[in-house]
Structures are given as C-alpha cells and as structure tokens.
Amino acid sequence: MDTVTINNVYTLLQEMNHRLKAIEIEIQELMEEPELRPEYVEKAKKIMKQKPIHIGTVEDFDKRYGLK
After folding, report:
1. 3-class secondary structure for 31-68?
2. pTM of this prediction?
3. Is-contact 62 68, C-beta < 8 A?
4. Which of 1, 13, 21, 62 is a plausible cystine mate for 68, CB 3.0–4.6 Å?
C-alpha cells in the first residue's frame, strides 16, 4: 500500500487546479461571440446595399411567392 504524504496531496491539488483553470478558459472562449468568416461579412454587406422589396401585408407576401 502506498503512503500518501501531504506533498503528494498538494501536488495532486495543484494539478487539479491547473486543469480546472484550463477548463474555465475553454468555456469562456466558447461562450464569447464567435468571429464571422470574412466571406460572410462581404456577402452581408452586398445584401445590405440592395434595394428592399416592399411586400405589404402577409397576404401580399403569400401571393408574391405563391404560398397560397
């Protein structure tokens, strides 16, 4: 049977603490807003420059796109 010393326990606790901090950093990075791909940003800018289409009512929308 192995003898457990205070130094062994302390070393294990330090390793656990280090791993917990690494996990906390990973979680924080995952929770932050992800970066957008440059090609998506360019596509969105082009769409924003387009002239909007006035649809009117929901019925007009359905009629325009053949939904009813």
Report:
1. HCCCCCCHHHHHHHHHHHHCCCCCCCCHHHHHHHCCCC
2. 0.44
3. yes
4. 62
Instruction: Give the model's pLDDT for residue 37.
Output: 82
CA distance 65 to 34: 34
Structural domain tally of the chain? 1
pLDDT tens for residues 59-68?
988 888 888 7
- Angle (CA) 60-52-59 rounded to 5° is 10
Domain that residue 52 falls in: 6-64
Q: So what's the pLDDT on residue 53?
A: 83
**Does residue 34 carry a pLDDT above 80?**
no
Residue 20 within a domain: yes
Does the residue 1 lie in any domain?
A: no
CA pair distance 33, 12, nearest whole angstrom: 34
